[in-house]
Amino acid sequence: MSVKGFMDGLRAEVRGLPAYNAGLSSDAVRTRYDVPHVAKLGSNENPRGASTAVLAHLTQWTTAASLALYPDPSCSVLRAMIADKLGVEPEQILFGNGSEDLLAIAAHTFIAAGEDVVTVVPSFGLHIIYPQSVGANVITVPMRFDFEFDVDALIAALSPQTRMLIVSNPSNPVGCAMNAKEMRRLLDAVSPNTLVLWDEAYFEYAENEEDYPDSLAILRETRLPWLLLRTFSKAYGLAGLRVGYGIASAPELAGLMDRVRTPFNINQIAQEAAAIAFQDEGHVAASVEDARAGRAQMRAALEALGIDPAPSLANFLFFDCGEDAAALAARMLADGVIVKPWREAGYETCMRVSVGSAVDNALFIDSFKRRRTAG
Ligand SMILES: *Cc1c(COP(=O)(O)O)cnc(C)c1O
């Protein structure tokens, strides 16, 4: 049988999946456009990188013997630290090879083909792709025109048949966040048949902002099943090592996901680095301060060009550039500037730019100014 014949017999939900739009690497852009420096502002990475404490540990890592051994399948050291700091039971915690791994595990654990999942657009692509991969019917609720969550529309989209509600707060790509009142109002409308998947990939950037909710406390007030996701990829500067974690409302839910995941999904180097990073609060605080200052500067520079970025509590800005964003982003590559044009229907004139180093942010503004045709 030909590959095509074989493929035609596979599940339609898998054959129909879109590719994840991960963007270009710095190396690819450097070689293709022959630029000396690349401003990689498409993936919300931390321009400070990993903390010096993490780097020091990695250089001392006892190599040969340790590399031959399987990692700790339960991440016990990191688990104990997180449980202690957050005041949750260690058995409520789960680890993923990045929090995207946890999104995949949650989809496989909790969703059956044909079940409804409610989420937001513009969206973090995997919030849609993973549920679709298991055959879910994904219902998407657009953000309001002022780029805030449309809580009323989300509530209207929910039903007792909804198996999962997926929200990232702050939103990726928009950057806006629900406050405590809105979050409670939304959760009050959720059926106990629905698992609330609350993705806080940008938690550290937002946690000290006045209006940002204590989501762990608010989720705990409910009697719903929930899963709260956080990651070491953003404020901790460890995207390359792939560590994310989840807190489940009940150890039973975490236990089910534990059976679905691969047993050694976090490698030993990543576990150790994450444990050191978790304790290095100074590095996170400095990274968050950088992001806040850089974000304000970029917002002001964009506003001076007549652009109105969405409210953001995260390390990126999202805005309508008034023209085909993919074409503009492609022209900016020639300046060594990588941004993320939004490709979801209705948002094709929008782009997301990460807050990077001061040099990279200036490069972005300069390139954006010269390459745009609108305005
Ligand atoms: C970056 C991001 C993640 C994934 O991060 P990992 O690197 O897989 O931990 C998950 N959710 C959102 C909303 C993100 O922006």
UniProtKB/TrEMBL annotation:
<dbReference type="InterPro" id="IPR015421">
    <property type="entry name" value="PyrdxlP-dep_Trfase_major"/>
</dbReference>
<keyword id="KW-0663">Pyridoxal phosphate</keyword>
<keyword id="KW-0368">Histidine biosynthesis</keyword>
<dbReference type="Pfam" id="PF00155">
    <property type="entry name" value="Aminotran_1_2"/>
</dbReference>
<comment type="pathway">
    <text>Amino-acid biosynthesis; L-histidine biosynthesis; L-histidine from 5-phospho-alpha-D-ribose 1-diphosphate: step 7/9.</text>
</comment>
<feature type="domain" description="Aminotransferase class I/classII large">
    <location>
        <begin position="37"/>
        <end position="361"/>
    </location>
</feature>
<comment type="subunit">
    <text>Homodimer.</text>
</comment>
<keyword id="KW-0808">Transferase</keyword>
<dbReference type="InterPro" id="IPR001917">
    <property type="entry name" value="Aminotrans_II_pyridoxalP_BS"/>
</dbReference>
<dbReference type="InterPro" id="IPR004839">
    <property type="entry name" value="Aminotransferase_I/II_large"/>
</dbReference>
<dbReference type="GO" id="GO:0004400">
    <property type="term" value="F:histidinol-phosphate transaminase activity"/>
</dbReference>
<protein>
    <recommendedName>
        <fullName>Histidinol-phosphate aminotransferase</fullName>
        <ecNumber>2.6.1.9</ecNumber>
    </recommendedName>
</protein>
<keyword id="KW-0032">Aminotransferase</keyword>
<dbReference type="InterPro" id="IPR015424">
    <property type="entry name" value="PyrdxlP-dep_Trfase"/>
</dbReference>
<dbReference type="InterPro" id="IPR005861">
    <property type="entry name" value="HisP_aminotrans"/>
</dbReference>
<feature type="modified residue" description="N6-(pyridoxal phosphate)lysine">
    <location>
        <position position="234"/>
    </location>
</feature>
<dbReference type="InterPro" id="IPR050106">
    <property type="entry name" value="HistidinolP_aminotransfase"/>
</dbReference>
<dbReference type="InterPro" id="IPR015422">
    <property type="entry name" value="PyrdxlP-dep_Trfase_small"/>
</dbReference>
<dbReference type="GO" id="GO:0000105">
    <property type="term" value="P:L-histidine biosynthetic process"/>
</dbReference>
<dbReference type="GO" id="GO:0030170">
    <property type="term" value="F:pyridoxal phosphate binding"/>
</dbReference>
<keyword id="KW-0028">Amino-acid biosynthesis</keyword>
<comment type="similarity">
    <text>Belongs to the class-II pyridoxal-phosphate-dependent aminotransferase family. Histidinol-phosphate aminotransferase subfamily.</text>
</comment>
